[in-house]
Write a structure and sequence with these properties.
GTPase that plays an essential role in the late steps of ribosome biogenesis. Associates with the 50S ribosomal subunit. Keywords: GTP-binding, Nucleotide-binding, Repeat, Ribosome biogenesis. It comes from Auraticoccus cholistanensis. This protein is α/β, with parallel strands linked by helices. The chain has 3 domains: 158 residues, Rossmann fold (3-Layer(aba) Sandwich), CATH 3.40.50; 173 residues, 3-Layer(aba) Sandwich (Rossmann fold), CATH 3.40.50.300; 78 residues, K homology (KH) domain (GMP Synthetase, Chain A, domain 3). 36% of the residues lie in helices and 21% in strands. The chain has a 6-stranded mixed β-sheet with strand order 2-3-1-4-5-6, with helices on both faces. The protein is elongated. The chain starts with a strand and ends with a strand. The chain binds guanosine-5'-diphosphate. Guanosine-5'-diphosphate binds next to helix 6.
Amino acid sequence: RPVVAVVGRPNVGKSTLVNRIIGRRAAVVQDVPGVTRDRVSYDARWNGREFVVVDTGGWAPDAQGMAAQIAEQAELAIAAADAVLLVVDATVGVQDVDEAVVRVLRRSRKPVVLAANKVDDQRTEAEAASMWNLGLGQPYPVSALHGRGSGDLLDAVLEALPEAPREAEEVPRGPRRVAIVGKPNVGKSSLLNKLSGQQRAVVDDASGTTVDPVDELVEIGGTTYQFIDTAGIRRRVKEASGHEYYASLRTQGAIERAEVCIVVIDASAPVTEQDLRILTMVEEAGRALVVAFNKWDLTDDERRFYLNREIERDMVQFGWAGHVNMSALTGRHVDRLGVAIEGALAAWETRVPTGKLNAFLGRVVAAHPHPVRSGKQPRILFGTQAQAGPPTFVLFTSGQIEPQYVRFVERRLREDFDFQGTPIHLEVRARE
Ligand code: GDP
């Protein structure tokens, strides 16, 4: 969802305008300069388009003390925004502070929409025209208090936002792409046979989905999936030794094309370096992951004991992945793969609303502040999810955040938002 930052110097009516945009009286409104101190984000909707509004509190770029903190917050909000709504007070005309704000906005290169507020009647409308002097193009005269002009303003804001991605339900999405990967002889082709044997794969022309001839449509538990590069598995391309490089390329290619990967591991034999390399490939490609411990029928208590030790010793970094203990031979728990795949994909596609994410960050940071280093307190100020599939978050910080602290936040994110089955990425942008 695109983000609109609302900025302007104190007392121009930002919070009233934000309330007008979100259609309720949620922000604190008081006729006292600087009363909305913290940035607060709200979900808004106009003409069927959803976006996030970030209210930034009164902002003067050259501020000191508390005001300087507000300025810092405002600049962060601008950095994270897709468009900026600058609010000025039409009844007092252009102020020096407004011009300073405009200079900062120019540097940010974000699209800016100019709202000339407090145009409560026809008479003040002429004064709004003087805001052309700011050099930001057409000023939109509005009365946040009475709602006058807010429709045109919102149209302009939507216009300034990046192109809306087409609604998910409008785009007929093809079946989800699944890759079965693993080293030779772990049971990939046996698994594929078992899965497609339950329901013979048909390439359905009528549904308009194009399936690469090396792929197959396979149904599991009523859902159809596109299994990637099944030709490679079925043809049983037995790479002679020395050709492992090509096998690895093929695996890499399948992983890249897939949304979710089933990494098959032979549970009856020790977990090997090659298994771990394939898991790492999936993690680095940012794909959802289900680990299938196959040949379970060949494991006894002793083997399972050692397998658990191997998992604890070598696979901790993949602790987020789902596991299925199965047998392609007997069919044990093969049906559970469907549930595991769905769960992993749902986590992989999760979108955390900006407001919810920042409420979470606020809680975590308050309960476990970053340790103070050389007299300074590095802080996470604001976060936003930049992408889904896999979930990718950008954290805006003041000061250098230590890697351990980033990992700590990542663990808490996983717990709070239940990211089982998907890698997640955290990107940190430190401010000087
Ligand atoms: P791929 O190279 O990964 O495709 O592995 P295959 O599917 O060709 O299987 C390799 C060997 O393991 C074959 O002899 C299979 O019959 C056997 N196999 C596969 N899955 C199982 C299983 O769950 N249990 C047992 N006991 N054998 C299996």
